[in-house]
Amino acid sequence: MRNEQIPDRNIAMELIRTTEAAALAAARWMGRGDKNASDGAAVNAMRLMLDTVDMDGIIVIGEGEKDQAPMLYNGERVGNGSGPQVDVAVDPIDGTRLLSLGRPGALSVVAVAPRGTLYNPHDVFYMEKIAVGPAAKGMIDLGAPVRWNIEQVAKAKDLSVEEVTVVILDRDRNTEIVDEVRAAGARIRFITDGDVAGAVMTGLAGTGVDMLLGIGGSPEGVVAACALKAMEGDIQCRLWPRDDNDRKYAAEMGMDLTAVLTIDDLVQSDDVFFAATGVTSGDLLRGVEYVAGGATSESLVMRSRSGTIRRIQTEHHWRKLQALSGNRYTS
To answer: Residue 4: what are its φ and ψ, rounded to 5°?
Structure first.
């Protein structure tokens, strides 16, 4: 039994303020074609609010290594230091390209788990993934054929194979998987970016999504695992090297590129917090919308220990927020 320092209250309610701040700061850049500016705005706002949270956190999944990421870098300490010792995974904007092009589905995301329980993919940036909701938990196998997994999901959800909808990131590296899904007869919903949202949708009723397949980002795989833990869904991943440099790096780090990582490998705790706020409106969450004197946002907040899932709609009032924040993320 892992000796965990379990938080005695739901700090996800504090974490939601960090994703709201990032979303409010980044949404002003919607459609302006500047990924770096929008990401920088989100990172700065999230960093500001993370340091108000009662936790002693270390960034495990962040914006990169310290030399390339001045804030929210891997290994950075966050929180006010007075709470539990935790690992922190951040994605200030999941879908920076979506935001910069004014497209739907960009999110701001934070996940937290007890210290030492989040998987660290280091600099192997991609993973093969399969994710499903609670109905198909325990019925998937990344090592099995695509058709078999689709049939398992169909059986679990009392659907025909032709009624199963699979979310796949629209990338050339997923062409073979797309061909296998089509050969099986299932439906495909392509997404251009942001596979955290795709994985989360598998666990929520009413999204029309039954499973996620394909190769996407490793950090996003760990973040998605946190959400799926809270929803009692399931995910399996396997590191995917892009080239010989990745293979060499993985060997030097002692990382097994053939191993299938289960949800319990990715998140070795049953007390996980997840928070996400919509930046641009999509299938999962509404984005930031501006009104006279403020804005509105929609967020998801989850805790795996209690099984609580909250959908929160928030009204933000600039005058009061600026007085509290010193105008640091509302303009």
So the answer is: -105, 145
Tell me how far apart the alpha carbons of residues 103 and 121 are, in angstroms, rounded to a whole number.
Answer: 29
Please list the helix, strand and coil fractions of the chain in percent, rounded to the nearest 5, in that order. 35, 25, 40
Helix residue ranges per DSSP H, the chain: 12-27, 35-50, 96-100, 146-156, 175-184, 195-201, 218-231, 244-252, 263-266, 318-325
The model's pLDDT over 199-215, given as tens digits with 9 standing for 90+, comes to: 999 999 999 999 999 99
100: which 2 tokens?
């910069």
Rg (CA), the chain: 19
Backbone angles phi, psi at 158, to 5 degrees: 55, 50
User: In sequence order, which ranges of 238-300 are alpha helices (DSSP H)?
Assistant: 244-252, 263-266
| Mean pLDDT in residue range 74-86 | 91
**116-169 pLDDT, tens digit each:** 999 999 888 999 999 999 999 999 999 999 999 999 999 999 999 999 999 999
**How far apart are alpha carbons 4 and 271 in whole angstroms?**
9
Say if CB 280 and CB 109 are below 8 A apart.
Answer: no
Residue with tokens 């955290």: 196
Q: Measure the CA–CA gap between 118 and 75, rounded to whole angstroms.
A: 13
Read off the DSSP letter of residue 267: B
The Cα 263–Cα 234 span in angstroms is 6
Q: How far apart are CA 96 and CA 106, in angstroms?
A: 7
CA distance linking residue 65 with residue 22, whole number of Å: 20
Q: With contact defined as beta carbons under 8 Å apart, do 180 and 213 qualify?
A: no
Which amino acid would we find at residue 92?
Answer: P
* SS3 state of residue 18: helix
- pTM, full prediction: 0.90
On whether the CB atoms of residues 288 and 38 are closer than 8 A, the answer is no
